[in-house]
Amino acid sequence: MDFRQLKAFLTVAETGNVTRAAQLLNIVQPAVSRQIRLLEEDLGTQLFERGRHGMALTEAGKALVEYGQRAMLELERARTVLKSSETRISGLVTVGLLPSTSDILASALVTAVAQQHPGIRVRIAMGYAGTLLRWLEAGEVDTALLYQAERSSEIQTTPLIQEPLWVVGPRDSGFKRNKPVPLSKLVGRKFILPSAPHGIRTLVEHACRAADVSLDLSAETNALSVQRSLVLGGHGLTILPPIAVAEDLAQGRLSGAPITDPDITRTIVLALPSNRSTGRHIRSVVDILEQEMQRGVRSGLWPESRWLAG
């Protein structure tokens, strides 16, 4: 197996067509077919089903796509490190952001990186903490924001922000930021919560066990936008950090209050892999990400939060 074979294979897998792959690779069609044939002979297995309508991956081919994409990503990272000069930092950096943080951070991060390091291209990957952790371990993202509860021997974390979780409801719910609500007072109300094992769901369930209470769920969802929409539609209350619905709270579309007895807080950490090197371009983006997060806390754009880093 060599680089040309792997690149030809991935291009055919993506297009499903040898002719189209040849056009993208800027080589003749027989050369692409030959690279695929040599790769199949080397591996001793068929990677595609050839048909009238194109090339369909076999089960072996589907498995190789995953490994091949990771290998190509690592090669691209190596090329970036080797080509970077002392005066200009360049390369692609993939940053994993939590849904509740993407609105405040994505645009600010991309803008700041473009201004300070125009040779760096930022890719934003959004997902929940468990998903981001898997992507980080697999090398699909270079750095990510996680909850402190996410653990792995293959990552190193730095706590950056601590923030409370609030009960949030429609504007007529009567919640106020200066009037904390005991968790026991929410018993009997309908709730929309993230599906397990989402980080916020885990924190809420732990608090409920500590207070010996049980919340009544009317719906579960793994999409923050759906969670927000259901609350606005009057289907129940939810529990979120204020940053997740900051604009709705500011505009009065939703109302919210801190939860007490017990307090529920989450800690956001910056995670980097400990099992592979981190290039200058990644470190540069990480520094800017931290700066933008700290700016959000100090300016009040990240409501009710506390900066933990030095």
TrEMBL record:
InterPro entries: LysR_HTH_N, LysR_subst-bd, WH-like_DNA-bd_sf, WH_DNA-bd_sf. PROSITE patterns: HTH_LYSR. Gene3D superfamilies: Periplasmic binding protein-like II (3.40.190.10), Winged helix-like DNA-binding domain superfamily/Winged helix DNA-binding domain (1.10.10.10). GO terms for molecular function: DNA binding; DNA-binding transcription factor activity. GO terms for biological process: regulation of DNA-templated transcription initiation. The keyword Repressor does not apply. Residues 1-58 form the HTH lysR-type domain. Keywords: Activator, DNA-binding, Transcription, Transcription regulation. It comes from the Bacteria. Belongs to the LysR transcriptional regulatory family. This is LysR family transcriptional regulator. It comes from Candidimonas nitroreducens.
